[in-house]
Amino acid sequence: MDRRLRFSERTRLATEGTLGDLQHDVVPETLRNAVWHVLAQGGGTGVPREWLGEVKAQCMRHFGWSNEGVFEFQVRQGTSVEEFLDLLEIAVEAGVKKYWRSPPVRTVGSQPKLVPGFPHLEDELNLLFDRHRFGYRMENGEIQRVGSPALNDMVVGPALLASQRPGWEEVDRAYREAVSHQRGGPDERDDALTSANAAVEAALKAAGLQGDRLGSLSKALRNSDLVPSELKGVPEALGVLLKRQEAIRSNHGDAHGKAPGSPAVPQALADLAVHWAGAFIVYLAEMSSSR
């Protein structure tokens, strides 16, 4: 499943250089309400009520609830972050099962049949996590913490602001794409690597270095006054990082004939690419402006 950025998100990205702070220590009330709607309505896709009954029963056993009637309260306001995430893992686990459903009208020879639970619930929840800036993702039924508010504040925001200058339009475009892909889910992480690479190469050119490929740009950087003696070897290290990222993209991504279902680029590597690219963009912008 995919979701376009909405107006408020596009506005924040354009004016603040961020989609908003990630939240880890509290579940936003708006997210709780949205999750309740999805669970209660089954996403509007004919999810069997037997699935929700199984979720409630599993939650009673896991949390020690007195009855199923407290389910809505727990989703919308009663649970801690950890309990909220436990509840969602339980719901997704129940969603991949099948349930017996009796026909709505009993006729001679009619038999119950097995129907899917809520197999795409994980996708639905990840879309809500992105929309409400909740710093977790679910993969294969397990919740994983993602993102770093500190790095978002200290690297991503400054990098996007640093690229707001004449001649740095391509840097700005590529880095915004990298940030968007970084937060877009498993299928977009390889694109985050590519866009991060493109942003760094564009920044090298915008800083006044000559070259059309990474090798020539790295050589120009090495011989420029942008690299003081204390940072000897940094251009070579930059070249290695960019090449390694391309290798990661080739092995995990879908751009070089990889078969469908190949493992996605790990979230940590996508985060690393975006963050170090942002730090380098800030460095180049500051060094080139102080000439």
Ordered list of secondary-structure elements with their pairings:
Elements: H1 7-16, H2 29-41, H3 49-63, H4 71-78, H5 81-95, E1 98-101, E2 113-116, H6 121-131, E3 136-139, E4 142-145, H7 149-162, H8 169-182, H9 189-206, H10 214-222, H11 234-252, H12 267-289
Antiparallel strand pairs: 1-2, 3-4
Helix pairs in contact: 2-4, 2-6, 3-5, 7-12, 8-9, 8-12, 9-11, 9-12, 10-11
Structure explained in plain terms:
The protein is mainly alpha-helical. The protein folds into two domains: 23-145, no CATH class; 149-289, Four Helix Bundle (Hemerythrin (Met), subunit A) (Up-down Bundle), CATH 1.20.120. The chain is built from twelve helices and four strands. It has helices at residues 7-16, 29-41, 49-63, 71-78, 81-95, 121-131, 149-162, 169-182, 189-206, 214-222, 234-252, 267-289, and strands at residues 98-101, 113-116, 136-139, 142-145. A two-stranded antiparallel sheet has the order 1-2. The chain has a two-stranded antiparallel ribbon with strand order 3-4. α2 (29-41) packs antiparallel against α4 and α8 runs antiparallel to α9. The protein starts with 6 loop residues before the first helix and ends with a helix. The model has no long low-confidence stretch (mean pLDDT 82).
